[in-house]
Amino acid sequence: MMMEQEWLTAAADYEDGSKKIYSVRQHAPEGADPEEFSTVVVIEWIFDDELPDAHLLKEMQAFEELLEPLDDGVEHFMVHIITGDGQREWCYYTRSYPSFIKQMNQLLAGRQHYPLDIEYQEHTDWEYWQEILEYVSEGAKAD
Questions:
Q1: Over 96-122, what HEC string results?
Q2: How far apart are CA 107 and CA 101, in angstroms?
Q3: Which residue of 12, 18, 113, 125 is 20 to 30 Å from 1, comparing CA positions?
C-alpha cells in the first residue's frame, strides 16, 4: 500500500533577481535506511531561460511521469525537485546506481533524447537531502 508522501514546496527569490522553486520530500519511505539507500543520483535538465516556459514545463512533467516507477521506496526514492537558474534537478537515493540507470534507460527507451546530465556518488548520511529540506522548511515557515 502506497501512502501519500508529504512534500514541501517553496519559491525563493535571490538578490541577483534569480528565482528557484523547490519541492522536497519531508520523510523517507517507511523502512528506508541511509545505509541501504546510500547512493545519491542527481539528474539535471539544462535549459536556456531562468525558468522553463509552459511548453518545456509540459515536457519536463511528461519526463517526470515516465520516471515515476523509480520512486518506489523499495529500490530507489526521489527526495527533491529544484527548478530555476536554467536547470531542473531531480534527486534520488538508491540502493544501486547500476540498477537505477538500467531501470531509467528501460523507462525512457524509444523516447526522445532528453538534455540530461546525471551524476551520482556514495552518500550514506542523506546530507544533501537534509540540507535542502532544512532550507525549504525554514523558508516555508518564514513566509
A1: CHHHHHHHHHHHHCCCCCCCEEEEEEE
A2: 10
A3: 125
Percent of the chain with pLDDT strictly greater than 70:
94
DSSP type of residue 143: -
Partners of residue 24 on adjacent β-strands? 8, 80
Tens digit of each residue's pLDDT (9 = 90 or more) over 91-131:
999 999 999 999 999 999 999 899 999 999 997 789 999 99
DSSP for 9-60, please give it: EEEEE-TTS-EEEEEEESSPPTT--TTTS-EEEEEEEE-SSSS--HHHHHHH
Any idea what DSSP says for residue 86? Answer: T
